[in-house]
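As noted in the main text, all predictions were made from sequence alone. Below is one such record, for Sel1 repeat family protein.
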Amino acid sequence: MMRNSQILLILACLLTLPWAVNASTSAAPVAQRVIQHGFPTQPRALANTTEALFTEYHQNHNALSLVFYAYGVLRQADHFMTVNDVIRASEYAKTGFFYLDEAVERHEDNLQVRYLRARLDAWLAADLGRCVITLKDTAELLNHAQAFNAPLVKRIEGMRYRALLNCHYPQQADALLAQIKSQDPGATAAWVSDRAPEWDMNEVTQVMLPLLKGK
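Prediction:
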């Protein structure tokens, strides 16, 4: 069963995206609304949106709908932990991670899906053991760095740094952090913080919107 602190760290890593994205009408309107407005904060509305994302995925097989479904389930896990319903919190957390991994397995050649998994996992508590997955994901992403712009490559390097720390590879982590500092001294604050940085427009335009359009 997951500890309270582990569940509560999930919330800081999940989407709150008040972007006014002018995406064209898509086959994934629920996922599009999440990009535009973020997830609902009220438990009932959150549950409804999360269920709608699951239905949407089965209708259109859009990978973003499935990833957002996993994110929504994990937000519900956080809610149950805040009201001390530890059993349901643990069940929802397991379900959320299952479908997050399922999204990558079903779309294993899609770098954007892999990015979204790493983005969440990188700021989770070390004892959840997700760092091993993040190391694999970030290695794959950096092997295809040409698919991303420079700010996103830096973010991937930061996620890898956190995974190295959480998996107890301090020498490799220090070497990577030194490399990041040499390129951009001001970029390291986000990587050493235990709070995930806010989602930025690069992530919306290079990761989420291509998935929304089915690319």
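DSSP finds eleven helices and no strands in the chain. The chain has one domain: 4-212. These features were considered when defining construct boundaries for the mutagenesis experiments described in Section 2.9.
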